[in-house]
């Protein structure tokens, strides 16, 4: 098969020659090998600005112990490939180079010879084989995600030698590299074989002793506790777990802790153009705050060196701007790539039959959409900054779809009430709330994560609009991330209001177009049916099945124009069904950056696809001005 090779786009291969002074001292004492042996024989050269100097730390904040997403965005996940900072090219990451067959069924990866885990053990295909064969493809570990399938069939692995492996699919999978650039894709290299295998029954005949020592019932629980997962709080608990990240966990994330500390990884595999091993900055320190107000006070007091997550609500912008000089920082803009700032999803799989029937009426969803005065929401909650929007990539994207982005945006309360009357919701109680078919008031909970204050603000404006004008009562159910996730996955919610990113680039599952992952909160049981091949959940209707069929053909072609055409087929059906709706375009938000923090590139975007700044905007290349 013909293959097109892709080499690293960030610099030529070189040898590590420089290192942090504290590491050089350990080398002199015989406690560490020389830097050229630690950073691999083929380190990646990073040229993201000036050649920096060593020292200092970066301070940032997180909202409670469940806010592990902030840690991921700061430290990274470091999978096989990553997005270049231009956000259009995929480049090698922990591997040195890759090639893809013409039919997009075979992916060959060449690793960096001599690359190490953070404890000094070699990173080789043994680790890839353990992560894939012993865990990812092991039905006793977990249900394999659609991210690692094509045409319903999972990937397979061929180990060629110590530093070369091939991943194959029975069917073409042109979106595979994009999936691997996401945080979830790092599962293929997350588990170090030399460490994590001791918690696996195939490698440890005396596993019962470990289970008793840790007081857990199964090897799966033990593996999870000790080796974690790339997108879960448990990843930040075990300080002994070897990693491939720029910084190594030193103080764990546990209940009651107030600070999480990371220290420089002496075996990190990137260098600058002068051969100096990264990272420049020695420590990353996250302080845990219990509420948004405390984080805002910390920001304006100058306690953060770089922060936008959890303080970037539009309402915070004026006070952040006013305190720039006193806090010795500048505002840092973080832009969006597509999607909605507030994506409202009624649960179409609701377990209450009366609510289920109502939510599955398209006219009900249209009524809520056109019964929403978006301009009032934008003017009040977003300080006038925003454009009414449903979902989808923005107009400058070749994937932009006009109808799914702009239909049913007009504020038309008369038409909305006509639609609700037409559904039989003509009776009202003494408070003016419409009555359902069984006589109950039309009163629903909207689940909102407590880490999204701007969505709380927006829905606070929507609430009286729906109640006073439409006769539909909503109550805001503000919960933490874990409760929000559990309720939505089990289909226990009425509606959710959440951020809705939508680029539709390779690697992003278009959850607004079809029920395909945990972000498809409008249909969690259809999603479960699809993810488990019908073993769990509820079989979806034909219009959903048709979208599944289209989705599975999108990356079966390497022709970008054909991929766009098929995406638009998906969007045509999703627009017609109108299963959920948005409020406004994802807008630019603003955080803080200390004035003396160098090499922080402009143009940062933040989505689940681009976990900024880590992996994309390279905080390991940041440094403090002398």
Task: Give a structural overview.
This protein is of the alpha+beta class and 626 residues long. The chain has 21 helices and 25 strands. Strands 1-6-7-11-10 form a 5-stranded antiparallel sheet, covered by helices on one side. Strand 12 (247-251) and strand 13 (259-264) form a beta hairpin. Helix 13 (362-370) runs antiparallel to helix 16 (413-422), helix 14 runs antiparallel to helix 17 and helix 20 packs antiparallel against helix 21 (560-577). The protein is globular, with a radius of gyration of 25 Å. The N and C termini lie far apart (53 Å). Mean pLDDT is 93; it is low at 1-11.
Layout of secondary structure:
Blueprint: E1 3-7, H1 21-28, H2 35-38, E2 44-46, E3 57-63, H3 68-75, E4 81-83, E5 90-92, E6 95-101, E7 106-111, H4 125-136, E8 149-150, E9 153-154, E10 156-161, E11 164-168, H5 176-181, H6 193-196, H7 207-214, H8 219-227, E12 247-251, E13 259-264, E14 270-272, E15 283-289, H9 292-300, E16 306-307, H10 317-322, H11 324-327, E17 329-334, E18 339-346, H12 353-359, H13 362-370, H14 374-381, H15 402-406, H16 413-422, E19 443-449, H17 453-470, E20 473-479, H18 481-489, E21 495-501, H19 524-531, H20 542-554, H21 560-577, E22 581-582, E23 589-594, E24 597-598, E25 623-624
Parallel strand pairs: 2-14, 3-15, 19-20, 19-21
Antiparallel strand pairs: 1-6, 4-5, 6-7, 7-11, 8-9, 10-11, 12-13, 13-15, 16-23, 17-23, 18-21, 18-22, 24-25
Helix pairs in contact: 13-16, 14-17, 20-21
